[in-house]
Design goal:
There is one protein chain. With 498 residues, the protein is of the alpha/beta class. It is 42% helix and 16% strand. The two termini are 33 Å apart. Bound molecules: pyridoxal-5'-phosphate. It comes from Acrasis kona.
C-alpha cells in the first residue's frame, strides 16, 4: 500500500493513524441538514406564500429592468433569486469525499508533516432535489417572476426530462397551468415524473427540436409563457443560486466543476462565484459526443452542433444559448470533455464509493476528475464537483453499470478461435476458471466474420477483477498459444491490441 495512512496502519500504530484522520477531518465544514421532505411539499402553496415568493425583498425592483452589464444577469439578480427560492428549496448537501479525494489525488489528499493542506474533493448533491436535479432553481425563479396575468395564461416548456419535471412540479405548487412538450424518446422515468407533478405532457417527435417547435406553437396559440431550459435571464439567475449556496456552505473552495449543456447552470454559477471571488476557477465539462460550448468558444459565437446520442442525455444539446454563451465566454476558465465510457465509470464509482445515484450528465464532473482531464495548479486544493442530477431509467442504469465495469477492467469480452473439435472449448473455459474468471455468457460463431472453415470462434463474456487480472489472462492465453483477441474494450487498453 502506497499511502502514508496505510503504511501507518500496517505498522500497527493505530493511534497515529487516528491522528491523521482527525487532522484530515478537522479541515471540514459542518454538514448542512439533509433535505427531509414533508407532505406539504407535494401540495399547492397558499396564495399568501406565493405572494411572499414573488416579493422576497421588500424594496426590490424587478431585476429584469436593472441589469447594467452586457450579460443580462448581475450578482444582484442572482442574490434576489436566492432570496426567492429559499422559500421553496432547502440547500442541498455539500460533502467532503475522503475516498474520492484519495482515489484521485493519492498521497496529495492526505495531511502529513510535509502536506499541511491536502487536496480535497467536495461533492455538491444537486441530485437530492425533489425532482432529482438543479433545474428547480431556474424553474422557481422564472415562475415567481411571472406577472399575475402571465400566471393566469399558464406556461409551456420543451424538455427531455429534468427541466420538464422541475417546471411541472413548481407550476403545480404555484397554481400555474403547465404544458410540457417532450420527445417520444425521452426516458420513461422523466416522462412519468413530469406527469406525476401535474403538467399536461405532449409527446412529439424524436428529439428536443421537434418538442421545441410544438412548444412554440402552443405558446403562440394559447398565449402561454415559454420557460426556456437555459437561454433565459431569469432561469440563468435561478441556476446561479447554486454558486451563492456553494459560497455560503464553503467559502474556501478554490475550484468548481460543473456539467455544461445549453449552459444555464454554469453561466449562472460562474457569474455568481466570480463576482464574489474572481480567483475561484470554474471549469465546465461537456460530453465528447456533443461539444457545443467548446465549438462556440472556438468560433467566438454560438454554433449549432449535430445531434449525437450519449448516455449524458441531459447535456446533449445542439444549440447552446446565446445568452449563456456570452456569460460563459467571460467567466468560465476552461471546458473539458469526457466520453461515454468515462461517464459510465463515473456513475459506477459514485454508486459504489458514495452510494449516490447520478445520471450520465450529473456524473461528468467526476468522470473528468477520474480521468485527469483537468490540469490543476499547485494552489487548487479544495475542489467542488457538482452532481447536477440523478434521474435515470433503470434499463439505462444497467447498461451504464456494464459499460462502467468494462471501462474499469471488471467485465471483458474475449474472442477465441479454436479448431472445431470436441474438447477445445473446455480447454479455454478450464484455463479461464483456473484464473478465477467468472464466465457470464458464451456464444459461438462459425459462418460470420471470416471464421476459417473447420474452426469456431467462441465469444466469452467474463467477470474479471481489474486490468491486472485481464493482463494475466492475456499472458496466460498467449502462452497457451490460443488465437484470441479482446473485443470492445477501451482503446487505451486492449482495444488497440486486437
Ligand atoms: C443533470 C443535468 N446536468 C447538467 C445539465 C446542463 O444544464 P445546462 O443546460 O443549464 O447547461 C442538465 C440539463 O438539462 C441536466 O439535466
Amino acid at each position: 500500500m502506497k499511502s502514508t495512512l496505510h503504511r501507518v496502519c500496517i505498522n500497527g500504530s493505530l493511534r497515529a493513524s487516528n491522528l491523521l484522520w482527525k487532522r484530515a477531518y478537522s479541515t471540514l465544514e459542518p454538514l448542512p441538514t439533509a433535505h427531509i421532505l414533508t407532505p406539504e411539499e407535494l401540495t399547492p402553496l397558499s396564495e399568501k406564500k406565493i405572494e411572499l415568493i414573488q416579493k422576497p425583498l421588500a424594496d426590490s425592483v424587478d431585476t429584469r429592468t436593472i441589469v447594467d452589464n452586457d450579460y443580462g444577469v448581475t450578482l444582484n439578480c442572482i442574490e434576489e433569486a436566492h432570496e426567492r427560492i429559499r422559500f421553496l428549496l432547502k440547500p442541498t448537501p455539500i460533502q467532503y469525499s475522503p475516498l474520492l479525494s484519495q482515489d484521485i489525488f493519492g498521497k496529495e489528499a492526505l495531511p502529513s508533516k510535509t502536506n499541511k493542506s491536502p487536496r480535497q474533493i467536495f461533492l455538491k448533491y444537486e441530485n437530492k432535489h425533489m425532482t432529482g436535479s438543479f433545474k428547480e432553481r431556474g424553474a422557481i425563479n422564472k415562475l415567481a417572476l411571472l406577472s399575475a396575468e402571465e400566471r393566469s395564461r399558464g406556461v409551456v416548456a420543451s424538455s427531455a426530462g429534468n427541466h420538464a419535471q422541475a417546471v411541472s412540479y413548481h407550476a403545480m405548487r404555484m397554481g400555474v397551468d403547465c404544458t410540457i412538450c417532450m420527445p417520444e424518446t425521452a426516458p420513461l422515468s422523466k416522462i412519468n415524473g413530469t406527469k406525476r407533478y401535474g403538467a399536461k405532457v405532449v409527446l412529439v417527435g424524436n428529439n428536443l427540436d421537434d418538442a421545441y417547435v410544438e412548444a412554440s406553437r402552443i405558446m403562440k396559440e394559447e398565449g402561454r409563457t415559454f420557460v426556456h431550459p437555459y437561454n433565459d435571464f431569469d432561469v440563468i439567475s435561478g441556476q446561479g443560486t447554486l454558486g451563492l449556496e456553494l459560497m455560503e456552505q464553503n467559502p474556501y473552495l478554490d475550484t468548481v466543476i460543473c456539467p455544461v449543456g445549453g449552459g444555464g447552470l454554469i453561466a449562472g454559477t460562474a457569474l455568481a462565484i466570480k463576482s464574489i471571488n474572481p480567483r475561484i476557477k470554474v471549469i465546465g465539462v461537456e460530453a465528447e459526443a456533443m461539444q457545443g460550448m467548446i465549438a462556440s468558444k472556438q468560433a467566438k459565437k454560438p454554433v449549432v452542433v449535430p445531434f449525437q446520442t450519449t448516455i449524458a442525455d441531459g447535456i446533449a444539446v445542439k444549440n447552446v444559448g446565446e445568452k449563456t454563451f456570452k456569460i460563459i465566454d467571460k467567466y468560465v476558465d476552461d471546458i473539458v470533455t469526457v466520453n461515454d465510457g468515462e461517464i459510465a465509470q463515473a456513475v459506477l464509482t459514485l454508486l459504489e464509493r458514495e452510494k449516490t445515484m447520478c445520471e450520465g450528465a450529473g456524473a461528468t464532473g467526476i468522470a473528468a476528475m477520474l480521468t485527469n482531464k483537468i490540469n490543476f495548479t499547485a494552489s487548487q486544493k479544495r475542489i467542488c464537483v457538482v452532481l447536477s442530477g440523478g434521474n435515470i431509467d433503470v434499463g439505462l442504469l444497467r447498461e451504464i453499470i456494464d459499460r462502467g465495469l468494462v471501462n474499469d477492467g471488471r467485465l471483458a469480452r474475449l474472442r477465441v478461435v479454436v479448431p472445431d473439435v470436441p474438447g477445445n472449448l473446455a480447454r479455454v473455459l478450464t484455463s479461464l476458471a483456473e484464473m478465477r474468471c467468472n464466465v457470464r455468457e458464451v456464444e459461438h460463431e462459425r459462418a460470420f466474420r471470416n471464421v476459417p472453415v473447420g474452426k469456431t470462434a467462441t465469444i466469452v463474456t467474463l467477470q474479471t477483477r481489474g486490468w491486472d487480472h485481464i493482463d494475466q489472462v492475456y499472458k496466460e492465453l498467449t502462452n497457451m498459444k490460443f488465437e484470441f483477441s479482446f473485443e470492445g474494450m477501451p482503446e487505451h487498453k486492449y482495444g488497440v491490441k486486437e
